[in-house]
Write a structure and sequence with these properties.
Order of helices and strands: HEHEEHEHHEEHH
Number of helices: 7
Length: 304
Amino acid sequence: MRTIMKPAWALLAATTLFISCKQGETASEEAAVATSSASESTAMGNAANAADTAKKFSDNRKFIRTADFRFKVTDVAKSTSDIEKTTTRFGGLVTHSNLESVISHRDETQFSQDSTLVTTRYTVESNLTIRVPNAQLDTVVRTIAKEVDFLDARVIKADDVSLQLLSNQLTQNRNSTQQRRIEKAIDSKGKKLSQIIDAEEALAGKNENYDQAKLSNLALKDQIAFSTVTLKIYQPETTRKELVASVVTPRPNIGLQLIESIKTGWYILESVLAFVVQLWSLALLAFLGFLVYRKTLRKTKPAL
């Protein structure tokens, strides 16, 4: 009986062991499949997030638009006034306006004894810088084009600053996180004065970087919201002739001339006398020399 039972037990143990191995392999395969599925899901999620980020970035592209013009008009003063009114009407503002006459030649001719003919050739020019809402730029440009008599140049640009805005925003976020960490370290771990000073200096540097990135973004957003238009306008050269009075000095009468002549002669006499007085030393030397000469001459003269 015992001999028969041993093979039965051995068979049962082998069957149980085989079933356990199969179950282990099945569980391993299921775990591997689950891990692979999770990895694929994560990769697909990351790819989807990247695609969403790229789509959002593409949909939110920002441009700084500028325009430069140089053209001739019939009347610079009138065109300048019309452009300034157009700018105001469409919600913009004039940041610079300079109207002047540039003289190329000026000539004066004596027309009569008391008048002079002045001939002037000049060109009236105006330099304008205006800022208009970005949505109104095209309308403003079309309105300004009505003033053009001859177009020298027109340049319109659109600079994409989306990446710069994103870079500034990331810098702000990064510096903000570092600021909080440094502030927490100062409050909880700053024991020594030197450590606190170093941490405060590091915090000040992060604050400065944060502020610079914020100001840069604000400046970019302002340029995005308002486009800048630069205009140089001029009109044909103009010639202006003007008759102006000549400045004539009246001739004095004979009595005043005689009095002035007497005064002048007296002044000359005074000058001569003063000059002669200044030569008294020379006259004295000459007189002494003459006396010495006479004495010497008498001594050397032979007696008759």
